[in-house]
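---------- Forwarded message ----------

FYI, see the ATP-dependent RNA helicase record below. Original note from H. follows.
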Amino acid sequence: MPNKKTPRHQSQKQQQRQLLASFDVKRRKTVTPVKKIKNPVVEAANEQWADMTMNPPPMPAANKPAAFGGAPSPSTQESKKRPQQHQSEPASSAPASAKKTKRAKAKKSAPQQAAEESSTEGEEGEWDWKDVTMPTYIPGADNDIGGMVSLQEIDGVNCAWEDDEETGGRTLKFHKARKAGKPAQKSDAKQAKRTVPLARITSTRDDSDEEIDNFYDTVDWDSFVAVDDYSEQKAETGELVSIGKLMREAESELAEANVATDADEGQSDDDVVGPSGSEVEEAEEGEEDEEDEEEEIDEDEDEDAMQVDEVEIEDDEEKDDTMAAGFEDDVEDPDVDVSAWDAFGVHPLLQRALKHLGFTTPSEIQSKTLYHSMTGRDIIGAAETGSGKTLAFGIPMLQHISENPGKWTAPTGLVLTPTRELAIQVKNHLKAMARFSRARVVVIVGGMSQPKQERQLNTCPDIIIATPGRFWDLVSTNDVYLNQLRAIKFLAIDEADRMLEPGHFSELKDIFKALNETALQETERRRQTFVFSATLLKDMQLNKRKLSPKAMKRMQGKPESGTMEDLIGRVGFYDKQPLFIDVTRGDSTARTLVETRIDCMANEKDHYLYYFLMRYPGRTLVFVNSIDSIRRMLPMLRLLQINVFGLHAQMEQRQRLKNVDRFRDTENAVMVASDVAARGLDIPQVDYVIHYQLPRSGDLYVHRSGRTARASNEGLAVMMVSPEERKLYYKMCAKLDKDISPFPIDLDLIGRLKPRVDLARDIDLREHKLNKISHERNWFKKNAAEMDIELDSDFMPSSDDERGSEINRSEKQEKMHIRTAKSRLNQMLSKKIMGRGISGRYLSSGIISDLADRLLDQKDAHAVFSTLRKESALETAKLKTDNLK
Ligand SMILES: Nc1ncnc2c1ncn2[C@@H]1O[C@H](COP(=O)(O)OP(=O)(O)OP(=O)(O)O)[C@@H](O)[C@H]1O
């Protein structure tokens, strides 16, 4: 288990604070010991970090092309921010040859100089400190440098950490650096030449450079390691590469690059900042294996350091990855014919993946959009739920990646989704499609390890699937991410209508703004944009006229209004007029969806639900309108021995993913969910969707119902309508322009099941009450103990007094009652239920003519109702609808 206090695990902010502390010392004229860090390598790394942040030495990493983020190398950052200042940059950007000479000179005099350094002279506060102009960017400082603006420096004074025996820590000491051969003078510090601030971090380089170089050479860089490279494992096995080695390598690389660039392009020394792109690529290729290994170690370390939850989430994520593949081997079924995709020019590697997935033909939305998207058009697409919209925007991205293999300096595609689950699902879908093209797809969502996500961004993935909040959190604080965001070639907004809801739109707006800040002004076409949803038309209230270039231009200047037009206006299409492709039917529900309703009183919904679940077992998704309803229903259904899971927004992300997985993996299971599961969740073979409470809008009804009847499969949506909901129901039917027929119910069976449900509800209520009392009591006890208060016996009777023992007795009785009720319920549950007019003891012909056959039938026998056969609710509903026609 790595030490969490090592710099590797400290946040950049913490490191920055440490650095700040050291400079505060200088301003306060006192010298304060810093926190003692026992590990000598860590100590060295800390010291080196502090110094390198202010005085970046030449590092090979500085010359690598920036990946999508990462702790940016000083020179790359500075060169991006202030290209015109290269000349004046010291160590990292100075002409290599000049620097070499200085170093060589300094190297000779280093030991001498060290010997000649005086100890601290006089009061530092009396010296001539000068304000330091801070750069606009400090590596690892989140650009939050406000606290460092008052930094001061003095020319000719060096800082050094020294062990403090008294405190066991280390102390920052200031030493006036004397020129060789010059005797020490007390007034030296005061008389120090007042030049502009130290040029290492400001834009001016003057004769103090020599001292900087001297300072560099007084430090034994071989005893330091780069913080970024530091790992406990490497420290133990002695694999750490010293800064000294890196510096030497960087110097020789710089010198070589200098020569090569000079010769090839006749550039001046000042322009040379690193090796050419191809060299970098070669070097990177050479290092790849090594990096992979390091990456693995890093992953291990970080995962150890992370919260348990996060680790488990990542495990889940890995599991998702394997699930995403959906197949264990790489051998395609020769009988699967995917030639239908040829017409769209789909890349052979993608066709192979399609073959694996068994997707022989494109779905309607895919075939209607692919031709245009493959030729570069921007698309606004509307298609019913479960119709394959993910691949409609995913294939063009993967096609581009397959046609242009190699390393990119920015991701190719960005997909924004409203929920975390949907993001993970889209990632899985695209990963399965990218199986042979090997495109790297990552997911950036809240509730998961941020460091890991940052690392993933740093590796410059091909496609990023993200929720707007977390993505903007990461990108808005890092210029490198921002620049690379602007270079993406594809942007897709999935479930666009949901993005308009409060909580998504403000970040989405910021992302669009950042994306378009520079990109839109360029004449060269660089980005393709897709906006997809199932209920686009309804929410948009948009017609083609509104998509005219003029109208779109007008919309861009408008303030947020939260409408689809507003989103369309802000997203920044490159097409003058994006294509609008709508393949929805009037109501956007799938053609294969059968809809029905159950009319019942609000307080009977549990009975009807239980009846439905018992009568028609299958994978059933039950939607409710509040989290409280989920909390109430879960224990009751569990008591009724139903395999039930919950899903709502207040659940930990880890639990949410786990529950979705379990539900997906269990054939006969129930998930009670809030509308967090209404959109986009693609769980194969959801047999039934039950609207336990009516959705608050027609669109929500469409999305909820869309969790079944996906990818041309059939499915059933059942609305439970109480008299109070009648008005809403009629309104919804009018909006969706449909009439929903009632579902046939056997009222006798409901009557027989009722006692079970009532008993389960009663047990749950009693347990809940008991738990609440004991929770409250413990809370008082705990707080009283903490505050050292003795609780009054009236308030908290002890078991010794009469009232206390009375309470104890009644609690015990209640527990006993619950136990008895539970065993009664279990007894009930273990018995099969007979239909009306049928005796459990004697076989009588009665209402059911083939009763004996049914009772003897093992194969089709119903598990709960002994006189009934297994039946599908879908068939029952269809039959009823047909009869009504
Ligand atoms: N061409 C195809 N042939 C067969 N199955 C497909 C095809 N394209 C996609 N699918 C499958 O159809 C299912 C639904 O696809 P997808 O999730 O992309 O739908 P969607 O339109 O985005 O749905 P929603 O609006 O609910 O998010 C997925 O399981 C997917 O694997």
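H. also flagged this: Residues 363 and 388 are 6 Å apart (CA to CA).
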